[in-house]
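Continuing the series of single-chain predictions for the mutant panel. This is the parent chain; the variants come on the following pages.
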Amino acid sequence: MFDRKKYKEIAKKQLKGRWKTPVLATLVFMLVFGAVEAPEVIDSLSHSQAVVNAAQGVSVHISEESTVSPWVSLGAILLEGVCLIAYTYLFLVLSHTREPQPFSVFIRGFTLWLRGILGFLWMLLWVVLWMLLFFIPGFVKAYAYSQMFFILAECPDVGVMKALRMSKAMTKGYKWDLFVLDLSFLGWALLGACTCGILYLWLLPYINMTQTNAYHALKAQAIRSGVLTAADFGRVQPALEDSTAESADAAAAAAPAADAGAYGASASSTEFTDTPPALDDGSTPGGSF
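Parent structure:
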């Protein structure tokens, strides 16, 4: 079964004593996205103030067009793709190791900038097209494509179009589980809003580490059930191979990596087994955050 509680418990073990780099990366991530969204927010506030002035009888021209340049919007989209793949790469490295990782690991993820841009544009195109039909199909497809960036960050031989198809195959039958997994963080997200976003510096790493564990489990299940093959994923990024080599049993002990067989399922089964990976202390996870 898809056990979100185990993925969350493993994430806490993986982050224990290793919060520094994920928190710093999250701070950069939030600052970048804040800067990206700032022009749109300012434009929206300016328009809203103009409407208020007009309602109060102040003579003012209200433009229906955005004052934000299309080039600025396009640049924001491209930057989001670059930051997203670098952020994803960091948590993949954390999932393959148990030692604290330097901030340079996050910086190294930016070398995948082209894959991030192409992947984000390709995914965004399909989500928008589905949303033109109706909001719900687009929302569902967003979860179908949710594993795409993990694949792009981990597997250099897989192109963006294939990564999207593989994500659809991996999430078939599990989109609702992924939605519930995200929904389980709602209470913490609301609490984070009450702290002016400060709590998000720790919440976002916890969420992304959990989602990375879910990716490993979905990948293992897809391979073991025959939906995909190991050859479909090809080789992993050399840096991830190096990270795994630093601790021979890191993947098995600290993360549910597919190659380590942490989450098993028979070829005829369509569900995950109930056996979780071993944790650093040799115990098995139980309970949730």
